[in-house]
Amino acid sequence: MTLRPARSFAAARGLLRWVAIVVVVAGAVAAQTDSTRAGGALVVAVPEAPPFAERGPDGVYDGLGVRLAEAVGQRLGRDVRFVAGGDSALALLGGQADLALAPMTRAGEVAADFAAPFYAARLGVARTRGNRVFDVLGRLFSMTFFWIAAGLAVLLLLVGAMMWAVERRHDTDDFHESARGLWDGFWWAGVTMTTIGYGDTVPRSHGGRVLALFWMLVSMAVTASLTASLVSALGVGGAGTLHLPEDLQGDRVGVVDGSLEATLLREANVDARPFSSIGAGLDAVRSDSLDAFVGSAPRLRAARPSGSSLRVESTGVEFERWAVAVAPGSPLREPVARAVLDHVQSADWPGTVRRYVGSDRSSTP
């Protein structure tokens, strides 16, 4: 009879112990939730890298990444406070900052966890605008234009020779039997391809007319391809896509010392002169010390002085992905990643990108 109270007491004590464990775990979860959603202000380390982040003369931070960080804070229910990070924004994580805005790099992965990328910037080239007419005239004497013209001449000569071989015994007036007939065939192939068709040289045999019909069809494709090649070679097609390293061969090129673009050009065997900053490189282009300066296209445009004669052309290379970073092992990583992805997929994000980046058509995750 004396064992029943003891057993009841032991059972009650065990139940209380489990209740206490549940309370502690629930409190820890609630505390973690509070730290990520309703805690103090999120401190964001900001580099000086317009148009992604910069501090204005009035001390107010602005830029594409700054607007994103504010949206992340709003989605997490927390205020946002910005601190200057300079070139070492990632080094402030875990101590002086909760988040940092920075391009994703291999070295950066050691110091931080990149929660989510929000913009992929293309590689760009800054040059002086120059005189359009002189630029086109200069390209007329380039090797590219020479090889296009030489290839076309060989093709016309082959087609003309075929027509002369077919017609020279049937139509000696238009296609002479002598070697002069080769010129007749060359002339006919040229005016037929360009659809001018003077009518002074006309095939009269059945074989010649069949060959003429075949050449008319083929010449449409040749003309389209030739037009595209000439527009590219002469640079008269507007702002086309640059191709590296071909379009930089023979130029005096500059890059920011130690940057990712410096590594890319070195691997492409392009000799590039190092500069301390984008501004210093653009000044060298303006003073004619350089022919071109290579860097992130949005950052080159943002650093270009107002009213400058510099133009910035984008390449097809997406090489700099900007992201929000957190300290390794931070509980903020998952909620921040979700907030970033939600915002960049919202209807407001494209307008924000156009506002800060403008004409650079890079993709977003």
UniProtKB/TrEMBL annotation:
GO terms, molecular function: delayed rectifier potassium channel activity; ligand-gated monoatomic ion channel activity
Bilayer-crossing regions: 145-166, 213-236
Location(s), subcellular: Membrane
GO cellular component, one term: voltage-gated potassium channel complex
Alphabetic keyword roster: Ion channel, Ion transport, Membrane, Transmembrane, Transmembrane helix, Transport
Domain Potassium channel residue range list: 179-234
Topology relative to the membrane: Multi-pass membrane protein
One Pfam family here: Ion_trans_2
The UniProt record lists the keyword Magnesium: no
Domain Solute-binding protein family 3/N-terminal residues, every copy: 43-340
Record InterPro entries: K_chnl_dom, Solute-binding_3/MltF_N, VG_K_chnl
One BP term from GO: action potential
Name of the protein: Solute-binding protein family 3/N-terminal domain-containing protein
Taxonomic source organism: Rubrivirga marina
